[in-house]
Amino acid sequence: MKQSQLIVPNGHSKVLLHSCCAPCSGSIMEALYTAGIDYTVFFYNPNIHPRREYDLRKNENIAYAEKHGVPFVDVDYDSEEWFARAKGLEFEPERGIRCTMCFDMRLERTALYAHEHGFKVFATSLGISRWKDLQQVNDCGKRAAEHYPDLIFWDNNWRKKGGSARMIEISKEQEFYQQEYCGCIYSLRDSNEYRRQKGLESIKIGTKFYHQDK
Length: 214
Ligand code: SF4
Prior knowledge:
Elements: E1 14-18, H1 22-34, E2 38-43, H2 51-67, E3 72-74, H3 79-86, H4 97-116, E4 121-124, H5 134-145, E5 152-153, H6 163-174, H7 185-197
The chain binds iron/sulfur cluster.
């Protein structure tokens, strides 16, 4: 199926797209507008640390949405609540239960907004990265949808039909910021520890960008 043949579940006409960043949502946004689907980008990612990294990711996503005339909902940087929920999970590995909590929190908020604003379908960019466990993301999305009658989590596999390759192409075309860790303070710590063991420099926030020739 080509992207232009994407069909929203149950024949609904609009979608709330939870986005974690511009690189991950770029090809999904393109697929949605190519298919003529009415959608809104919803940015709720209180996991991202520090604030400078959060602002970089969010502002880039806002700029990309504005470029395409797509409505963008910017939700609170609710980091205190995220840290409260992460208590005791600080040393869990990526793809473990801290990530389940993190996906749950973000998708529960997305589902609530969808319910309150007349969206019957929501989706997320979280599963497009090959670093993520797609089943884990989808399970969290479905759990979030269960709170509301008639709300559907659209578990389309955005990696397929060239989605993963297009994600990188768009990132290079747009010269998006190239994030080097998942997002939270613990993933930053663990990524830096990995780099230290490999003899590499620590991550420098705000310095790495995709380029056409790389
Ligand atoms: S590693 Fe990523 S998904 Fe997991 S808790 Fe941290 S920010 Fe969330």
